[in-house]
Amino acid sequence: MESKFYEDNKLLVFKITDEIDDCSVQKIRRRADYEIERYMPKKVIFDFNSVTFMDSAGIGLIIGRYKFANMLGGKLEVANLTQNVKKIFEMSGILKLIPVTQI
Amino acid sequence: MKERIENEMKLEFASKATNESFARITVAAFASQLDPTIEELADIKTAVSEAVTNCIIHAYENKQGTIKINAQLKENQIIIQISDNGKGIENVDIAKEPLYTTKPNLERSGMGFTIMESFMDSMKVESIVGLGTKVTLIKTIKKQEEKEKEDEIVSLTKE
């Protein structure tokens, strides 16, 4: 996973470059929480452009980070959803809660 | 008359999270003989990943165990059986409910069975407490001519 923090608008972007499953998700979660806590962003965006695979572990990952960012006063959005990712997010209903954005 | 099995494979591996990707990639490679679309293949990979994750997290609760996969190709269908000798599920109907999870503290979404059910054509869960669980997933891969026909209809309706 790559990440970039934009100081001027307090935006933290995570570009996930791994497959997202129960095995990989723990590493992604730890890194994301560490950086959210460190930068205290106003907005967090998860970019799914390079995600070649995701199962339901991705739902827990995004809901968990959404709650964490919220707790610290930030918002969370998702971007560049691939067909497979979109299908899973739509099924779980989390897109009613989390906006899809363009980056 | 007994149905003719055209091809079959068996896989047995340790219940380790690192084997989740091994399992879904292997089953997808086997399924690719039916010439599925990228989307159909993604559906199979996701469903297998959910089933194998269930074995590791719930059946064996991250302890040592063996997971078995049997996959068969019959005409244009793939039949995948994923089984474990873990703790079993007390109430399968409740476990299948969307959002039901016994481990919410670990950010589990409770969507595993729902995803398997909707990404495949059918799902059967057989479980005996203390003995283990067997999940059977079936998906029909559309034939090339049917796909072309569908594409034609889509392009016609767009005009």
In short:
The complex is a heterodimer of chains A (103) and B (159). By secondary structure, chain A is of the alpha/beta class.
Protein described:
The complex is a heterodimer of chains A (103) and B (159). By secondary structure, chain A is of the alpha/beta class. Chain A has one domain (2-101): STAS domain (Transcription Regulator spoIIAA). Chain A has helices at 25-39, 57-71, 83-92; strands spanning 2-6, 11-15, 43-47, 75-79, 100-101. Chain A has a five-stranded mixed β-sheet with strand order 1-2-3-4-5. The mean pLDDT of chain A is 96. The mean pLDDT of chain B is 92. Chain B has five helices and five strands. Chain B is an alpha+beta fold. The chains are: A alpha/beta (103), B alpha+beta (159). Chains A and B meet through helix 2 and helix 3 of A and helix 1, helix 2 and helix 4 of B.
SSE diagram, text form:
The complex is a heterodimer of chains A (103) and B (159).
Chain A: E1 2-6, E2 11-15, H1 25-39, E3 43-47, H2 57-71, E4 75-79, H3 83-92, E5 100-101
Parallel strand pairs in A: 2-3, 3-4, 4-5
Antiparallel strand pairs in A: 1-2
Helix pairs in contact in A: 1-2
Chain B: E1 7-14, H1 19-31, H2 38-59, E2 66-74, E3 77-84, H3 92-96, H4 112-119, E4 122-128, E5 132-140, H5 144-158
Antiparallel strand pairs in B: 1-2, 2-3, 3-5, 4-5
Helix pairs in contact in B: 1-2, 2-4
